[in-house]
Amino acid sequence: MKKERRHFSSKEKVGVLRRHFLENVLVSNLCDEYGIHPTVFYRWQKEFFEKGEAAFERQSDAHTKALEKKIALLKEKIAHKDGVIAEIMEDHVKLKKNLGEI
Hints:
This protein is mainly α. The chain is built from 3 helices and no strands.
């Protein structure tokens, strides 16, 4: 009979790694406690360190995306205002022509 595979959430995985790094709990003790194989622990550790950079990049990326969105919105507003000004100027020129001032 096959043993059913357990799935750990990302929070659970980080919790296990945190206990090892901050509380200095031995890997063997953690593996026994959570019923995982040491290779699984070390795979989580490798993935954690490989993707650790992303935790810091996402903050700056989110900030950059927010700024880009704001810039796009402001450019759209300026384009709309330019269009309105162009229409007003066109009406103004037509009125002057009709009055014979040009």
